[in-house]
Amino acid sequence: MDEQIRQIGERIRGLRDALDLSVEDMAGQCGLPVEQYKQIESGECDIAVSTLQQIGRKCNVPLDVLMFGEEPKMNAYFLTRWGTGISVERTKAYKYQSLASGFRNRKADPFLVTVEPKPEDTPIYYNTHYGQEFNLVIEGRMLLSINGKDLILEQGDSLYFDSSLPHGMKALDGKAVKFLAIVM
């Protein structure tokens, strides 16, 4: 698995150790099956940003610390220049670029997300997490499925939704899609 995913798993394992929790206790607190949690810690599987956010919220640790190993420092403002945000490529198909990683105690997590195309018959991976989410397509087209409803979003389209509903996406037309995702 990717080196960045392995490092994220190590940070999560370190957090669990620091909190003196068993694997079972940590998985239970985060609402994850024990086997899935073990795979996350070992870096054997991809981990959704929303799952990292859920772990961070449960353990009172900023998402940045889990994703990037860096503690946010700014509390008045944080400027991210185009192309310079800290990024993590969860898989070859998803790249997340944090747009506010240095801002402390933020209420939302904005990301520039790039999703690479997959073969048409590839199933959509569904995710759920606490809160709400806003997506704005910057480039390309994507299929966004929410709670069984398939929506096609094109450049300039946006969608705000309850992220506790099962949702997933895929790039369309054999091209990558870039979108702004704000997870709250």
From TrEMBL:
Record has Metal-binding as a keyword: no
Pfam families linked to this entry: Cupin_2, HTH_3
GO cellular component, one term: cytosol
SUPFAM superfamilies: lambda repressor-like DNA-binding domains, RmlC-like cupins
Domain HTH cro/C1-type: 12-66
Superkingdom of origin organism: Bacteria
One MF annotation (Gene Ontology) recorded for this entry: DNA-binding transcription factor activity
CDD domains in UniProt: cupin_XRE_C, HTH_XRE
Keywords from the UniProt entry: DNA-binding
InterPro entries: Cro/C1-type_HTH (IPR001387), Cupin_2 (IPR013096), Lambda_DNA-bd_dom_sf (IPR010982), RmlC-like_jellyroll (IPR014710), RmlC_Cupin_sf (IPR011051), TransReg_Diox_bact_type (IPR050807)
Keyword DNA-binding assigned: yes
Gene3D superfamilies: Jelly Rolls, lambda repressor-like DNA-binding domains
Protein name from the UniProt record: XRE family transcriptional regulator
Origin species: Phocaeicola plebeius
Lineage of origin: Bacteria, Pseudomonadati, Bacteroidota, Bacteroidia, Bacteroidales
